[in-house]
Specification:
Shape: globular
Order of helices and strands: HEEHHEEHEEHH
Number of strands: 6
Number of helices: 6
Largest sheet: 6 strands, mixed
Helix content: 25-40%
CATH topology: Heat Shock Protein 90
Structural class: alpha+beta
Amino acid sequence: MQELSLNVLDIAQNSVRAGASLIEITVDEQPAADTLTITVRDDGCGMTPEQVRRVTDPFFTTRTTRRVGLGVPFLKMGAEMTGGSLSIESEPGRGTAVTAVFGLTHIDRMPLGDIAATVASLVQCNPDIDFTYTFRHGAGEFTADTREFRQVLDGVPLSEPSVVGFIGSFIRENTQEVLDTQAS
């Protein structure tokens, strides 16, 4: 994958398949520590300790449609190439958290990509699942939460194209505001 946002999409789709009702995506840039941390946490079915040990093996997958699962192994490789790491915490019946830490300014770090479009697409394709997206840069942060959007929209589906466009714009604008605030 050429962009980290595509890895986020892949991991979040794993959460959808795991029956999650809430998927939390966090992008945390800490320039002072030179780290970019991406976490995808869900309340899905979770994994056994054996599954957690094997999930970074490209020839292990729980899918029946194909025999390989490359999303997590590629994410791990990408993180480690920058001096970072990948960790997975999971418990059957309680969910899973995948955390990848990258060297923020490392030459081998893939670009984040269009995370706003990724989150908006996830919401559009899975309108019955709640998503939170948190962006942190230094001490600044914001969160987009579909539960709050649902309250405001009063019955308008999250999959409505104008709503999806709004969510993407909301994420882009608030990301820029956090970056601008931290720069001054």
